[in-house]
Hints:
There is one protein chain. Helices cover 41% and strands 16% of the residues. By secondary structure, the chain is an alpha/beta fold. It folds into three domains: 31-284, inorganic pyrophosphatase (n-terminal core) (Alpha-Beta Complex), CATH 3.90.1640; 319-427, Diaminopimelate Epimerase, Chain A, domain 1 (Roll); 436-517, no CATH class. Helix 5 (69-84) packs parallel to helix 8 (179-194) and helix 9 packs across helix 12. Residues 1-6 have low confidence and may be disordered.
Amino acid sequence: MIENLSEEKPRSLLERIIQKRGLSLESLETGIEALPDEALLANIEKGATRIKKAMYDNEPLVIFGHDDPDGITSTYILYQFFNACGFQNHKYFIPNRNVEPYGIQDSLVDFVKKGNYHLVITVDNGIASFEGVEKLNEIGCETLITDHHLIQSDKLPNANTIINPHLPYSKYPYKMLAGVGVVLMLIRFLGRELEYDITPDYYFWTAVGSIADRVPMTEVNRIIVRYAFQHWKEINNDTIEFLLPYYGPTETYTDIYALIQYLVRLLSNGREENGENAALRFLIKTNGEKEELFYQLESLKNQSETELAKVYNFLDTLTTGFEGNAFIYLDDEGIIPYHLLGAAASYIAGKFAVPTLIMKLHKSEIVCEGRCAEGFNLVEAFTACKEHLKQYGGHAKAAGFSLTPEKYDSFLECFHQYLDENSPESFTNPKIEPDAVVSLEEFNEENWFSLELLLPYGEGNPEPCFLIKDTTLMDLQSKFQVDINGFNFPEDAKGDVLVSWTSPQVLKLLSFTETSSIA
Length: 519
Ligand SMILES: [Mn+2]
């Protein structure tokens, strides 16, 4: 009798989602005390020792970043850490991908020569800079590589030290850190040794770079972001202080998560020449200069969002009625700007869940950004076709390459053959599984706030998806703002709808299945 009663007790929306996903309340509340010991990251001790030597000997060093928000936040937290420790002999160099290829190029080698630097610390890049590291060695400059990109064909650059969770002998149990996550672990390790307290602002900026790089929001990455949420009020950082008057409230975790997503967009637009980057300068500079750079980045962000909307529109027309096991497009009409190739590929791969290659002729080479969903590995695919490529690299689900135009046809042939042999069947029409069947009444304030425990969303922890049975558009619209999301939902139809709950008053349609029409 008692058992029956407890079975019938209605469970909260949050409890149903947690159960459906096989999670537990405890696992969602894990704090930083549960982080693995960063000493398990291979070579971290050697790297830390090299950095401490530079600090004690006051050796001039350069942090060599990458021009995306992961690279910018990586550079920023390491730069700030040196500042905080009272070290003053560090500079940074951020290459511009629109001007030069990925990784260590001659521009950095020249910068190092001129400044007589003895040490380069790469962040969020370097693992594929075989020639670049050799060139630095030749001029007597050591390289410490910190990176999270995949290691190519067991070949490693000839660097002083390499810290990368993908090193086969690394014992650190979590591989999916962002570049900035690797840097945070190095700073935590150094902080321990130098007895310097790693404050919540380091975690906050790591959260920004990690969410920007779309690493899975599970385990270590999730703990880092949650720590930034939980300690938000203690964050003492002049960039955040500067932003608050411009930005809306930051009372709830939803607000802070939205601020992080805003910063991801803001920091994507700082590319400059000669190793400089406006986004990094915005983070580092103070007062008047910060304000000027903020307005500059804001206006660049608005420009690029307008540009992006145009590209998405174009892709929508290009993919009307699309079916197939891959989407491959060479932009020979010049509609997709070079710097939006990755965004374009992400858009298509997200919409159709197929491997997507978007290519463009750039400086007499064909450059490609590839994206794909679960179940396919772009780096493996490119490796299988590497004889046709000039350079390639990246992650399983986000990778790129360059090739000479003469090799284009032979590459395509090779890639199609690889697809035929390696495509899972589920590429066509991935089915969305609801986390819970809900009534409209359940989309209330109490439930909204209870779901904040699931934040941050990302790969491995998707935004919940709800099934509302037998409803009409009128029912939904009587209580909510409904984002139809391009679906056909006739006024006179009843149906089962899948929605995501994007803000307390907004439901976004993910699918609609008609059950009956209203007589
Ligand atoms: Mn990265």
